[in-house]
Amino acid sequence: MSSLDRVNPAELSPPKGFSHAVTATGSRLVFLAGQTALDGEGKITGATLPEQFERALTNLLTALRHAGGTPADLARVTVYATDVADYRACAPELGGIWRRLAGRDYPAMAVVGAVRLWDESALVELDGVAVLD
Fold first, then answer.
1. Which of 8, 44, 94, 100 is deepest in the core (most CB within 10 A)?
2. Closest CA to 110 of 123, 96, 86, 127
3. Is the Cβ–Cβ distance between 70 and 128 less than 8 Å?
4. Contacts of 89 (CB under 8 A, 6+ apart)
5. How high is the pLDDT of residue 1?
6. pLDDT confidence of 27, banded at 50, 70, 90?
7. Residues linked to residue 74 through DSSP beta bridges, in sequence order
8. pLDDT one-digit tens code per residue, 58-90
9. Is the pTM of this model over 0.90?
10. Closest CA to 81 of 42, 41, 109
């Protein structure tokens, strides 16, 4: 049986929307490729960061679901943003999108600034690792 335990030491700053560490026990790892706001025809959708974040997260969770997992199985997610200041400004809205789509079992996360992503009009990309039974 798979088990993820979120570790948030009291001596570190309180995590908001992420866990400081996640320990994982399971028999299968799922490595999720970077997902942007591509639709089924391969075109970027959404003009704003929140719109693109929602589509990218939906795409990531779709890949995870088809691999047999759920959002609670995510151990690690990396977010690549072309504008970190915009990401910080939109953080409350992005957090709401995350909670609506993935719940409150937060993985270990990082946000990394990127000059540009593979698709030139992409503002955000998410990849991750999940642990399944």
1. 94
2. 127
3. no
4. none
5. 60
6. confident
7. 130
8. 999 999 999 999 999 999 999 999 999 999 999
9. yes
10. 109
